[in-house]
Specification:
single chain; alpha+beta; 3 helices; 4 strands; 26% strand
Length: 90
Amino acid sequence: MKESKVIINNEEGLHARPAAMFVRAANQYLSDITILRDGEEVNGKSIIGIMSLGIFSGQEITLQAEGSDEEKAIEGLVEFIENELSKEPA
């Protein structure tokens, strides 16, 4: 299993549209993706799960990936959050 901590840096956090964008990005990988925040964990490929965490801008989350492409998944999803997600207008 690979994991990485990352700060959500877009204005909306991971709600609605940004959560859907994250799910699309996560579904590009074969590995199971998990998001952890404040002791709670959800499936990173589930929009409902992600939205249930109530992740706001500036909060730190931990991404975990387990599977055949786990290293690539973590690198790609961290890059997505840090670069692509932050470019989206509110």
